[in-house]
Known about the structure:
By secondary structure, the protein is mainly α. The chain contains 15 helices and no strands.
Amino acid sequence: MNLFAIIKGWLSQSISTSIKIFKIMIPVSILVKILQETGLIVYIGDALAPLMSVMGLPGEMGLVWASAMMGNIYAGIITYFSIGMELTAAQITVLSTIILIAHTFPVELAITHKAGVKAGAAFLFRFLLGFLAGVILYNIYNIFNLYQNIPTGIEKIVAISENATLWQWALGELKNYAIVFCYITGLIIIMDILKRIGVIDLINKLFYPVLKFLGIGKEVIPITVIGMTLGLAYGGGLIINEVKQTQLQPRNVLYALMLMSLFHSVIEDSLLMISIGAKFSGVFIFRFLFSLLIMYFFVKITQKWDETKMGKWFYSTTNK
């Protein structure tokens, strides 16, 4: 195969995968914008307020979590700063951890569904486990009296304007879509090159023992690693692409997506939360160990289920 044919193949896959993701992201972005502009998202935050106290957080933080779940992490941070409430480092870490587990639901759940897992199952998985992680981490910090100080020197790091015009918002969204396209194109090229030079086989050997222990098949290990490091949208997009080309087992797709759902974009998002006062011990170490432990038990329980039962509870029509 000549170089021109290879490049043509890369571009074709990139456009095809990006279109699938944009068909999800664009209407969802518009819906979220409407919810934000009409103030309906506030009601979601009010409904979450009782759960916040169980995690040692003020009820107002329910609006922060709702903003992150309905919008994205940046929307949650904007809401947090706009409330102007001082939290201890422990509280910021708990809040950051639950946001990192459960955020950007409209887009990420739709991508998860397209990749083969029911959106409802993925929602409950991330929301309930996000809440559980918050409760556990709060009690750990409380019992050992850790990070009970209010951090100083924390400034607003989000450059997004809360009062942006509709035109500015649209331009910002177009920029985001362009970035997503570039990421997807780069990842598809990298994945293909790594396959051709044998690096994928090396990655499989390095990560296979841990992910095998969790019950994840080696054919989805490289994609799972990408999703964990760069983000669920990219990992999910690559899974959508791989499903079209190869016969990935639905069970392996499920386990890969669920692990990515709990622990993804570990570098960028973790550093983002640390920059607003969260502690590394919570947003990275605890979340990593929590995700591995949850996946261990999730796999142990579901590996005894037959495919009919798995399909009823977890597989979307895409993966049946």
